[in-house]
Predict the 3D structure of the following.
Amino acid sequence: MITDTPASGAGRAALADADFDRLDQLLAELGNDDAMIVEELDGFLAALACAPEPVTADDFLPVVFGLEDDDGGARRDTAAPAELAPELAAELAALVRRHAQAVAASLDAGSFAPVLAYDDQGAPDGSAWAVGFLRAVESAPDSWDAMLDEKEFGDALDAAEALAATLDDESGARAPSRREREALIDRMIADVGDIHEFFRPYRQAGTTPRAMRVETVRREQPKVGRNE
């Protein structure tokens, strides 16, 4: 759950194509192989927005910029990427924060559409998006494991994991055809909608599945069906 206070006016508006081009340019100018690309960023923010754990820009910006410590945690001693001039670093951070707010708002409204990379033939990729989504999943294993333990949601990450695996050159797996990849993307994005609804009661209650287990000893909570 992304808890940054939305900016007002233009600072809250969804990114336009020119904004995404600028975001892509600034991320590339970091010159950091650990920094995210736009497609990966979009998936990462979508998972953060779904989960019940509260996160702010202070939590996710260092990860986006590739500024993590040796244990994979965000480096709190680094407020901005040193590779960019201060005004460019501030611009980059503002674009990422705007997009984070737009992703969260579109998921809440049921109108989310992913930002994907396309090849020269116009075919979507989706692999980096899946990698970004799964990176956020790994940051809150208790909540995501609780979801996967539910019978209806046990396969909710299968499509994302299948797409992420296509980037593993050592897997030896056959690359999916365009039709297979598009089907995986469609399933992955449909699953994101289901995941967002699964976690909605927890976000609204300001709690997590693990914390809610204690509460359910005293109070029954309705389950959310996957297709409801």
Remarks:
- DSSP finds nine helices and no strands in the chain.
- Residues 74-78, 216-220 have pLDDT under 50 and may be disordered.
